[in-house]
Amino acid sequence: MRDVLPDIEKWRSQGEQVAVATVVSMAGSAPRRPGAKLAVSEKGELAGSVSGGCVEPAVIQAAMEVLEDGKPQMLEFGISEEDNIEKIGLACGGTIHVFVERLDW
């Protein structure tokens, strides 16, 4: 959280809402470990990272939805053995769960 906190504080001081996505679990290979965070301001500014490839844009979209409706989301990203990693755009072959919530403090 320390890596994204300065940006969160800046956005909040400007009156913006902020959503935070957190990697809560992983299985197999993944670029970021549990606890990794991505903060998203209501203007779409970003701080931190929860993954890479096609995962990050999907998490950002979910964060914008959470900012809009206030409902947290649990996301799962991974591939099956039938999937082609290069085709999908994932950096590795693991599975991650990302919890996205709006900060209301």
Describe the structure.
The chain has 105 residues and is of the alpha+beta class. The chain is 27% helix and 30% strand. The chain has helices at residues 5-13, 55-69, 85-88, and strands spanning 18-27, 37-41, 46-48, 73-77, 95-103. The protein starts with a helix and ends with a strand. Residues 84-89 have low confidence and may be disordered.
Provide key terms for this protein.
MoCofactor_Util/Proc, XdhC_CoxI, XdhC family protein, five-stranded antiparallel sheet, alpha+beta
Main sheet makeup? 5 strands, antiparallel
Shape: globular
What count of structural domains?
Answer: 1
Task: Give the termini separation.
Answer: 15 Å
Number of helices: 3
Question: In percent terms, what proportion of residues is strand?
Answer: 25-35%
Total strand segments = 5
Q: How much is the radius of gyration in Å?
A: 14 Å
Could you report the average pLDDT, rounded to the nearest whole number? 86
Structural class by SSE content: alpha+beta
Q: Provide the succession of SSEs.
A: HEEEHEHE
Q: Report the uncertain regions.
A: 84-89
Strand order of the main beta sheet, please? 3-2-1-5-4
Helical residue percent?
A: 25-40%
Pfam family, one: XdhC_CoxI
Domain XdhC- CoxI: 11-78
Protein name: XdhC family protein
Brief characterization of the structure:
With 105 residues, this protein is of the alpha+beta class.
Describe the SSE topology.
Blueprint (H helix, E strand, L loop, with lengths): L4 H9 L4 E10 L9 E5 L4 E3 L6 H15 L3 E5 L7 H4 L6 E9 L2
